[in-house]
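Q: Start with the shorter request: fold the first protein.
A: Done. Sequence, then structure:
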Amino acid sequence: MTRDFRERQPLAVPGKKPYDSWTHASRMLYHSAMSAKTRKPGETKAPPPPSGFSALTPDAVIDAVEAALGLRCSSLCRPLNSYINRVYDVELDDRTHVIAKFYRPGRWSRDALQDELDFLAELHADEVPVVPPLTGGDGALLHPWHDTWFAVFPRKGGRAMEEPTPNAWRQIGRLIARLHAVGARRTPRDRIRLHPRHSTAAQLDYILASGTVPRTFHAEYQETAARLIERITPLFEGRETLRIHGDLHFGNILSRPDEGYHLLDFDDMAVGPAVQDLWLILPDRLARARAEMEALLEGYETFMDFPRASLRLIEPLRAMRFIHFTAWCARQKADGGFMRLAPDWGTPDFWRQQIADLVTQLQEIEDAAA
């Protein structure tokens, strides 16, 4: 079965396993130059200059973790795969490990980052299986580091989710409903609103301003995407929204022995319709995945009512995902290094295909409405 790259692992990059940032270390192993025996929590030779990620040396990471947790670390610090943030596996003196996640400067506001961590803490308190942030010595979940912020998490091992059985689909549906039951309790301070006029329009503006669209295709891409946004916007009006995961593909569902499934990576947490957290894990388009969706909803409705009329948002959400993914790639190109992994991104053939995909998706939406 042919599957669209953006449906199952829309934020993956060739060479990156989507669960690497939590369970697998990079082959590069860094050792601090300072002996762990002579270090005290928070002690450092000299603070690095506030210059973004360039100052994140192994020593700087260890110092930051020690200061945040009030615990001594060993000299072991491994960088993990992450294309947006910087993520490290750090060993504590007692040989346990934590994950330090340094957020990309300027991507989210402090309130938005606090929203992510608070949501995880709420879910954990309600026994929803997630990886919650560790509380620092001062009681905080979010910690400052020069011109950015970071959080520390316990390290959790496991394996990526495989193709579910019918019973597993129901189990996942129950898990998502429990997530949404907590998500519906309150509104976050400053998270993206998943809506064509809000998130998608902003992403289109970024793409057009990024300089990545060749002049030859600029007007056609802009017109096609704008026409799509205009067409699907009315479908979202009046729809119930809540705090959702936002990026719930298979790579963000971890299977742990004797513990079932855990939900990972709330970096794209948003306010949006509940169906967003269901369609990404379907093996195909809804017309060819009815059995899986029915099993998901059977499990979901054990805990929460599901607005079945919102299933018609799946194809519009897929179209929005296309634009979201293009904007994500444009940001990675701007950050440098991405083109080594995806050398064909941004070529004339790439933009022809992007426009063709949006046209095809718009036709899918029109056909479904007929």
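Q: Next, the second protein, separately.
A: Sequence, then structure:
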Amino acid sequence: MSTNKIFCLGDGYAHGHIWPEWPQILQALLPDYEIVTGTGIGAGNEFLIDQLLNFDCENQSVIFQWAQADRFDKLVQDSQWQILAQNDPVYYFNFETNLSGTWWLSSASRDKKIQEYHDFFVQNRQAELRLKNQQILVENYLQNQNCQYWFTSTQQQESFCKTHRDSHRRSNEVQPHPIMHYYFVVDCVQPALNLPIHPELQVLVEKVINQTAWTAYDPDRKEIWENICKEIDFKYSSIINK
């Protein structure tokens, strides 16, 4: 296993639950690295920070994709919250477990209590201050860990996709089309961290992603991506062994 690791934190824009997204594509572009993800559908920054703190990221690289500051991540500790979460009409399934315990990631919940939290308890100024303070603390932590790091955000990726030359390929899903995740990696992530992506591998990955007919939430999406990665590995090996 590679000693070079890149830790990727993010919400549903990084989770890969619809189709491959930027961390999964980053792995295809960097076969000599281990890409470690700490993501969740609708994740908020409290959960993402906790994920980071549970990682051994010293002397490694970290990409932190900040989510909206008013999201509510609940560490489930009693039956009251377990029942509330499981009965939620939207996010009844949305649990993630790490070393701290089981989290309910509630961002898209229609529950009145959650909506009240978003609309009343965390107003814009407090949300902005919360995000600023969290970023300062995480940055200090990463510096103390001697990490190479880059901060991005879901909003930044959205803006990138909307203004990209191929913005018509944004897709109708909440998350961008895989090709837009590819462009995000090569245009934003790679130069930010000066990652050693082989030019011929980059061309190969772009070609394979472009040639694939992507269907959101395809029940075979995991197997499809695994087969694509095997195809990429085989073709890339043929190129570098010539």
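Q: Describe the second briefly.
A: The chain is about 50% helix and 15% strand. Residues 73-121 form one domain.
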